[in-house]
Specification:
The chain is mainly α and 96 residues long. The chain has 4 helices and no strands.
Length: 96
């Protein structure tokens, strides 16, 4: 496979991984909320729980995604296997 194909598969796999982690995080947080906090909170607080759980799941998935991505990039040589998405990296130019 070419570098461009590898890049495409990596982006597709990373996107699917991020979506799955978000869904799993949401389900776990929702179950924990229903079993632990819902019985002791007033009904007005329970009404606000869904948006808070949703945002928390997105934040948690972002954190997990970044940790997994850092570990993966430590193990593979990015320059060898992947093609840049937006073109080659350029040296920083000075504007006078």
């Amino acid at each position: 496979m070419s570098k461009k194909t590898n890049t495409l598969w990596f982006i597709l796999g990373a996107t699917v991984f991020n979506i799955l982690v978000t869904i799993i995080s949401f389900v776990v947080l929702f179950i924990l909320f229903v079993r632990i906090l819902a019985p002791v909170l007033p009904e007005s607080a329970v009404a606000w729980s869904f948006p808070v759980i949703f945002i928390s799941a997105i934040a948690l998935s972002f954190i997990i995604y970044r940790i997994v991505l850092k570990q993966l990039l430590k193990r593979i040589n990015v320059e060898k296997h992947f093609d840049p998405i937006f073109g080659p990296r350029r040296a920083a130019s000075r504007r006078d």
